[in-house]
Structures are given as C-alpha cells and as structure tokens.
C-alpha cells in the first residue's frame, strides 16, 4: 500500500513563492514517475509537472520557468517549488506516484490572492 501526504500549501500573495512537499510511505519503486497535479474549483484535474527517477521533468506550459519539480529517491519525497505565483495557480495540489496504478495524496490547498 502506498500513502502520499502533501504539505506546504497555504495563502500567498501574487508574485510570491511556495514550496510543496510530498512524503511517500509504503513500497515506492525508485523507477516510478512522481508528479504534481492540481484541480481548481469547477475545473478538471490537470498535470502540473512530473519527474522520473532519473530526473527527467515535464511541465505544463503555463508553469514553465516558474515551477520546479524535484525528488529525493532515498527519502521517497517529491517537491514543487512555485515561484512568481499567479491567481490562476489557485487550486488543490495533489501528489502523484505512477507504478502501474496511480496513487494520490489527499491534496493541499494553494491560494494565490492579494
């Protein structure tokens, strides 16, 4: 069984920064792809960024240059550094691990507002 717990969400001013972290417990394979998704009110969940065990990253276009995903395979954690935040980034952010099946965290709220 895989459990994912996100932390680091909160309220931040536009242009500010926030760092999200996800701690995984259970049997996490080092070859798994980890990532962050988000879901804003009234919208579908969307991919934000992913990272492979080898460090290859993928970002949705709207966050490129602003967000950075990273992982620590030894600690089974994945983080998302978010800079230059915009109101449009407001959403519940979910940690994800892909190992044949998708595992999800409970989500952490990120609100960007003045």
Q: End-to-end span in angstroms? A: 40 Å
DSSP strand tally: 11
* Approximate strand percentage: over 45%
Q: What percent of the residues sit in helical stretches (DSSP H or I)? A: under 10%
Describe the structure.
This protein has about 110 residues and is an all-beta fold. Helices cover about 0% and strands about 55% of the residues. The strands form two sheets. Strands 2, 4, 5, 6, 9, 10 and 11 form a seven-stranded mixed sheet that branches. The chain has a four-stranded antiparallel sheet with strand order 1-3-8-7, with no helix packed on it. The termini are far apart.
Quick tags:
single chain, 114 residues, mainly beta, 7-stranded mixed β-sheet, 4-stranded antiparallel β-sheet, 0% helix, 54% strand, globular
SSE blueprint and pairings:
Elements: E1 3-7, E2 10-12, E3 18-25, E4 33-39, E5 46-51, E6 57-59, E7 67-72, E8 77-82, E9 91-99, E10 101-104, E11 108-112
Parallel strand pairs: 2-11
Antiparallel strand pairs: 1-3, 3-8, 4-5, 4-9, 5-6, 7-8, 9-10, 9-11
Summarize the model shown:
This protein has 114 residues and is mainly beta. The chain has no helices and eleven strands.
């Amino acid at each position: 069984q895989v459990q994912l717990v996100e932390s680091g969400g909160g309220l931040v001013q536009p242009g500010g920064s926030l760092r999200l972290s996800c701690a995984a417990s259970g049997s996490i394979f080092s070859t798994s792809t980890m990532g962050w998704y988000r879901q804003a009110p009234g919208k579908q969940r969307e991919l934000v960024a992913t990272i492979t065990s080898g460090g290859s990253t993928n970002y949705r276009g709207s966050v490129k240059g602003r967000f950075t995903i990273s992982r620590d395979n030894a600690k089974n954690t994945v983080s998302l550094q978010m800079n230059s935040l915009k109101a449009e980034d407001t959403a519940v952010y979910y940690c994800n691990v892909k190992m044949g099946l998708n595992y999800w965290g409970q989500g952490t709220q990120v609100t960007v507002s003045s």
